[in-house]
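tl;dr need the bound structure. longer version: we got a ligand (glutamine) that a collaborator sent over and nobodys looked at where it sits. i said id run it. heres the input, straight from their email, havent touched it
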Amino acid sequence: MRAGVLALQGAFRAHSEMLDALGVETVEVRTPEDLSGVEMLFFPGGESTTMTKLVDSSGLRVPLGERIVAGMAVFATCAGLILLAREVLGGRADQEPLALLDVTVRRNAYGRQRESFEAPLTIAGISGGAFPGVFIRAPVLEETGSAVDVLATQGDHPVLVRSGAIWAATFHPELCGDLRLHQRFLDEVGGN
Ligand code: GLN
């Protein structure tokens, strides 16, 4: 199994390190050719405005859409979730998301005081105690479509969702040193 990590911008190496620790071969994806060699794709955190522009300049927008619609498994965190969303609030006027995940997401929604925080999360299907949720200038999911399952919430908001083979988190499981969520995703979608 070869896992791609979308490596246009942001904290993509953190996903590669988690996957290395789990014994999964990773490929950094920057071009349509890179994409054609992977069976699943991780979307990192970072800056969704920049990432969105680079998706267009790299020529990845169309092939990404085709692969994901055809069922490629995707795990997206934070800015990666924003990139996949159907609707982005608080984005730049020219920020056109991929619209592959039926959610409305508001960028930087926790306000200054809580720009970055940690919160223990209860995640459906993950045992062994609370999962450390690391939130960094995190977005808030304001609406989720009927085909979107909520796997974890924090306060009043969903923070981990699944829609078909797309999993998306508003927090950063790749930055907390806890492998359980990456493992669970691989178990479910990767045929591990
Ligand atoms: N606030 C960032 C954005 O809108 C996301 C932050 C993150 O990925 N940690 O793109």
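gonna send this back to them w/ a short note. Residues 12-21 form the longest helix (10 residues).
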